[in-house]
## 1
Amino acid sequence: MSNRARVARTGYRCASCESRSAQWTGRCPACQAWGTLEQAVAPTRGRVAAGAPTSPARRISEVELDATRARPTGVSELDRVLGGGLVPGAVVLLAGEPGVGKSTLLLEVAARATGRVLYVTGEESAGQVRLRAERTGAVRDDLFLAAESDLGSIIGHLDAVRPDLLVVDSVQTMSTTEADGAPGGVTQTRAVTVALTGLAKDRGLPVVLVGHVTKDGSIAGPRVLEHLVDVVLSFEGDKHSTLRMVRGVKNRFGPADEVGCFELRDEGIIGMPDPSGLFLARFGGLPVPGTAVTIVLDGRRPLPAEVQALVAGKDIASPRRAVSGLDSARVAMLLAVLERRAGIRLHDAEVYAASVGGMRVVEPAADLALALAITSARRDIALPPDLVVLGEIGLAGEIRRVAGVDRRLAEAARLGFTRALVPRECGTGPEGMRVQEVGDVATLLESLR
């Protein structure tokens, strides 16, 4: 073996995506971020000396579970997404657009959680948080507020309060003297997250971090943040609607595709275990042309969705197509299929399509419902109010199977629907529901005449 000393190689590492480069460039070649390359020394190869273990290895069957079981937060819809609650030592990153209601939701969690809660705010004063707590009824003696932006001061508060839950709003406003850069920068954000994650694991303290998002909807800061934390939640909502959704993106303790529904009101944020009233329009029991109901799967959760269509005019040279809450490319494809395969004349008419309640419907399982809504609007024939429609439509006009038909039909039966149109070979459905299987859209639309 050679006795020559090994020379450490110097390279550059991207602070955003962790990719390495041999030389410095202004832009990362992997993630295309500007100014994120930092000098780093590549580790040299060599033998590593054995060290003393911090604790002996144990059989997996001998590891205790009582200290790592989830504890409910008091907000049932959030517990659904988390997989039962907050696990001691877990770090949760809640990301969302400004003004969507992240602070309101976490203040509700802080008011309902058992034990002491330390709420650290770096964006507002303690007085501003108190005003919101007064409005939402979140004032209690075991909730402590601290308006801090320095990591060392936060650790001091932890030692003084000894909380059972720590909420940091937000991680981009925190900084530490152990790292360079301005607060909110890549280096500072990563250093603060690493330090808080270490504290959470050492003390068995659940930590909830609020994160900002960029213009494209991704979490601001380095992508390594998503790998450091245990749970990543996306808080979504339209500013023109009261509906808010918490969607699991990553979860080490439960399902990563669960969804929780909330309604944002003046008095706070309210969980909605049954949000069907937001997504279904009511017309006094009277059927209206141009409407159809389907059941979509958002994660594991079946949700009713009503799609509406309006077809207006005739012999228009440049007809308008307007879409709200639906995939515009999918709507354009369905219009072409309906005209070519089913003989529905739409090329010279204006078509408007939308979903109800601010729900975003992009699942292909809603194709058949949208096709029936468009045809119903064109022919001015209303569909039965007790009918639910499931199915994906192909370019040849065939109706394809969709996943989770049993769960969708069970939810439709719970909501009072007694008839269903489904693709072939999808089963019989729940008791009391009449299920009709259909194979192609042309044959089905002939029956609407």
Note: Residues 186-203 form the longest helix (18 residues).
## 2
Amino acid sequence: MDVGDNIGAKLQTDQADADLQVARARAEERRAMAVAQEQEMKAKVVEMRARVVEAEAEVPLAMAEAFRSGNMGIMDYYRMRNIQADTAMREGLSDEDGEGDEDAS
């Protein structure tokens, strides 16, 4: 037996190693949880896009029914298309403005 061995220092070193392993395991667990949450969010985005596509597919059917039932006339249709065109134009202009600001940075 070596009289010069410091048992207290060896115990502290072993404890520090154990604490480091625990900290690494917890960090890996947090990273895995973050990856899982990111995958869940991506799945939700895909689900929401599918719902939007379903809803958009119903629009022409609803418009046809509105024409048949007399709830929508041709002038109503033209006004709606004009509003859609205005909205698309404004969105296009705002996109162009946004791109110009990014280039100036």
Note: The mean pLDDT is 89.
## 3
Amino acid sequence: MSRPIDPFNEPVTMTHAAQPSRLVAFLELLVFVGFAWGSKLVVDQIIWKFSGPITLITTLVLLTIYMRYRGESWAGMGLRALPGWKSKLLILPQALLAIVAIIAAGALLTYGGDALGFWDADAEPVGVADRFAGIEGNLSVYLTWMAVIWTSAAFGEEMFFRGFLITRFERVVAGIPFAVGAAVILAALIFGAGHFYYQGIRGLVVVAAIGVVIGSLFLLYKRNLWPLILAHGLVDTLGMTARYLNLDV
């Protein structure tokens, strides 16, 4: 009997089973993106504030089970052990570069859209205010959102929207001009759409642009998710801490 595969640490053996065909990759995208979207619509009716994190984590659990059945692992999608101390030391500067890029992309699209008259950069979307209402000065609410940030947002979103979606979209669009770029953009559009429910059209556009930036860094960093997870978590932590302290930033 073969040794069981650890879905997080075992390197992928590039067997036929571990390389889905174009059709299989398309069906996987259809099923798992569809499940995440559809289940969220259901959970919205029960616990709207946390429907996104709940359904994303559920989707990742099912996806991990499916990948294990196929003989794949998250290591093959960027959540891999880093060889040597040099690669580990690179995580911090790579994360810092990602933080600057994320903030710059968000500011550029937010204020660029304001300058073009698409939205008011100083007016917070109603859904954002409703979702995070009550966090100012409330430590328990703040810590709850910190837990969500470092599980669903930092790990969950990077694993799903960068590791899984980009990898699978590459299989689907393989052979067309600029296939890798197309995969990054398609994954970013779904990433932006996933934030529409509480950020509206402005959030969709801004988050999709940030998704393009993070997806590009995913490729630049040789498909290593660790600096992106760290950067994503820190950027969201800064934003949530500013809300908790009621800072006008």
Note: The mean pLDDT is 91.
